[in-house]
Amino acid sequence: MSDFKVDMRHIDSVTVLDLKGYLDAHTAPDLERAFQHSITNNRFCLVVNFRELSYISSAGLGVLMQFIEDVREHKGDIKLTSMSPRVYNVFDLLGFPMLYEIYKEEREAIEKFQNLSGSAA
After folding, report:
1. What is the radius of gyration, based on Cα positions, of the chain?
2. Quick check: helix, strand or coil at residue 87?
3. Packing angle between helix 28-40 and helix 58-73, nearest 10 degrees?
4. Distance (Å, rounded) from C-alpha 24 to C-alpha 62?
5. In the chain, what is the greatest distance between 2 CA atoms, to the nearest angstrom?
6. CA-to-CA distance for 8 and 37, rounded, in angstroms?
7. Neighbours of 17 (CB within 10 A)
8. Which of 6, 59, 68, 70 has the greatest CB tally within 10 Å of its CB?
């Protein structure tokens, strides 16, 4: 029953992870692999797009926490975007807005990385 998919796109130096479906304990390893693939390939500017994510469990939140330190040690970051109110409420209740930058639109998160690096869109 746990349908989940993570697609990866590259926009300049930014990697966008598009999440779709239900992110729970059964599907969290798929997201772990996507993060690990990015880090292995020295891609530390990550945007996670939640536009098509219907549900996230504590296991999914744990994956985000698992990789943030490594990404930031390499002068990168994980920015979150396009959350439904339901998904945002989970993040808000757990204090994630204090740990992560959350944007309404993917474009805003990508531009934030591009402005920091000085690269053109």
Report:
1. 13
2. helix
3. 10
4. 10
5. 44
6. 10
7. 19
8. 6
At 48, the amino acid letter reads V
The tens digit of pLDDT for each residue in 82-110 reads 999 999 999 999 999 999 999 999 999 99
Whether the CA torsion 20, 96, 85, 90 is positive or negative: it is positive
Residue 49: other Cβ atoms inside 10 A: 24
Record the pTM: 0.93
Q: What is the predicted pLDDT for the residue at 114?
A: 87
Alpha-helical runs (H) found in 5-105: 28-40, 58-73, 85-93
Domains and CATH numbers, the chain: 4-112 (3.30.750.24)
Specify the pairing of strand 77-81 against strand 102-103: parallel
Separation in Å, CA 35 to CA 28, 32, 47, 77, 118? 11, 5, 11, 12, 24
